[in-house]
Amino acid sequence: MSEIHTAKNLDNKIKLGLVLNFGFTLFEFGVGIFSGSLALISDAG
Description:
By secondary structure, this protein is mainly α. 71% of the residues lie in helices and 0% in strands.
């Protein structure tokens, strides 16, 4: 039972995930600063 598995190219999906995560973190941090919410700021970090 010899099966060959090839890895798919996931570079673009990983980059998209990192960009979305970083963007959401910046947005959450900005809203935390704007509203004075330490909970949002700490959650963003």
